[in-house]
DNA sequence: TTCATACATTGATGACCGTCAATATTGGGG
DNA sequence: CCCCAATATTGACGGTCATCAATGTATGAA
């Protein structure tokens, strides 16, 4: 998938050999960092945890506002970030909004680390 | 490991059932978020990628400064963050500093996602 | 000891982020 | 149509972060 750098025969001087194309491209790295940015907040981790623990597979915002010590707008903000990161799915039914894990999304995030 | 919430028989009103203890505690979440904070930067992902791709298993700073479009102090700063997150190991030999992946660290980070 | 190299640290700056209060929007019920 | 409940959006504020230029530190060589 990645063209490996040419793997120089070792410069006679010392350290600092390859350079060439870095293993992970700049754009690719930026993209992958987005997922971890979404995961890099304690309250968002707790949100994911609560949604995952729910037996029904989904939680409405009021289920999520109480356990965290945060105001409702802040929780909504975090949920939006998780949705935009592709980790949560949002479905509005009546007045309520139900959030559920996107199937395989967490595994995919874990996969990024395995294939760095 | 976690005491599950009592799982109310469903309040007659509608939504908003459990509350109780959130699946992931506040302190625990804060701790786990630290690793993802370290991973939440494109340049740090690239650094990890380069170190991992190196056949010798380690890279000195000059190997890392060129591929990224960053100054040497900035690279040093990112490396420090990765070391403090427990992802990289630093060993100084002579004038050079060699960085290598901490064995199992990336897998452990991936494990956090699996056991949220 | 003096100099050059490799790397780390400091201080400053501009950008981004988490949080809240206030307000807007949407949907259901009377 | 009007009111209320649930959620989203906006604007503002304080804190953190990524980056760089300048400087400090340590190691090896002359």
List the keywords:
homodimer; 116 residues; alpha+beta; three-stranded antiparallel β-sheet; 5 helices; DNA-binding
List the helices and strands and how they pair.
Two copies of one chain form a homodimer.
Chain A: H1 26-39, H2 42-53, E1 58-60, H3 61-65, H4 72-84, E2 88-93, E3 96-101, H5 105-114
Antiparallel strand pairs in A: 1-3, 2-3
Chain A binds a DNA duplex (30 and 30 nucleotides) through residues 15, 41, 43, 60-62, 70-78, 80, 92, 94-97.
Structure characterization notes:
The structure is a homodimer of 116-residue chains. By secondary structure, the first copy, chain A, is of the alpha+beta class. Helices cover 47% and strands 13% of the residues of chain A. Chain A is built from five helices and three strands; from the N terminus they run ααβααββα. Chain A has a three-stranded antiparallel beta sheet. The N terminus of chain A is likely disordered. At the A-B interface, helix 1, helix 2 and helix 5 of A face helix 1, helix 2 and helix 5 of B. Chain A binds a DNA duplex (30 and 30 nucleotides) through helix 4.
Report the total helices of chain A. 5
Instruction: Please mark out the parts of chain A with pLDDT under 50 across 5 or more consecutive residues, or reply none.
Output: 1-14
Q: How many angstroms separate the termini of chain A? A: 12 Å
Query: Helical percent range of chain A?
Result: 40-55%
Class based on secondary structure composition and strand pairing of chain A = alpha+beta
Beta-strand percent range of chain A: 5-15%
